[in-house]
Amino acid sequence: MNHIRVQQEDFDVSAELAQMRLCSKEIGAIACFVGVVRDFNEGTAVATMELEHYPGMTENSIRLIVDEAMQRWQLLGARVIHRIGRLSPSDQIVFVATSSLHRGDAFASCEFIMDYLKTRAPFWKKELSPQGERWVDSRSDDVLAAQRWRD
Amino acid sequence: MIKVLFFARIREQLATTELEIDFLAQTQSIALLRQQLVADRGESWAQVLGAENVIVAVNQTVVSDSHSLSDGDEVAFFPPVTGG
Q1: Which of A33, A105, A146, A149 would disulfide-bridge A73, Cβ 3.0–4.6 Å?
Q2: What is the pTM assigned to this prediction?
Q3: B7 and chain A in contact, CB less than 8 A
Q4: Chain B contact for A38, CB < 8 A?
Q5: A38: buried, middle or exposed (CB in 10 Å: 19+, 13-18, 0-12)?
Q6: Domains in chain B and their CATH numbers?
Q7: CB–CB of B83 and A126 under 8 A?
Q8: Do B2 and B21 meet the contact criterion of CB atoms below 8 Å apart?
Q9: pLDDT (tens digit, 9 = 90+) per residue, A42-99?
Q10: Within 10 A of A20 (CB to CB), how many other CB atoms are there?
Q11: What distance in Å separates the CA atoms of residue B23 and residue A50, rounded to the nearest whole number?
């Protein structure tokens, strides 16, 4: 049972995990990752972030990533939520959870989905601060993190 | 007709979110579509669309410059992604 959402609203991690847990009595492990907006502005002024996406392609690309994870590992379910719109430091931005019989498949697939999402799903972050606006640059570390799953 | 979408930094640099272009012999690949857009819109578009790290998707799948286009395709130009 897979579940993918792109939304402005915040999400409730324990509610999401509870729904996942109740999907199958076979589940023995759920691994979960929550991405949080960092405070990029070192001063005292309030900074926020605007998240743009490509509607349709975003959901499709996440679905393909989840399908690939289901082929690589023995999973009972996967759940991905990504927020869009205006976000502030400490806000939750992304949720990835995978369920399996045992922890190994859940841990590995959760990290895989996150690494691929970072480099393949069409989202773009723009930082907004009193000093102005700035599109966030992609990171070579993220590309390397995704590449190590190729073998 | 080909629908062309622009996202993030590229959308802002071109001040264009979306446009439609007739499907003709001169727009049958991504490379040719890019040439046609530059011919229609001017040299500033050549710099933005010709930048090294521009990603192109056709019908929501990432493709290379040699990809062939068909009438009714949706093409998107965007910078490297930064979600998560």
Answers
A1: A105
A2: 0.94
A3: yes
A4: no
A5: exposed
A6: 2-78 (3.10.20.30)
A7: no
A8: yes
A9: 666 668 999 999 999 999 999 999 999 999 999 999 999 999 999 999 999 999 999 9
A10: 21
A11: 34
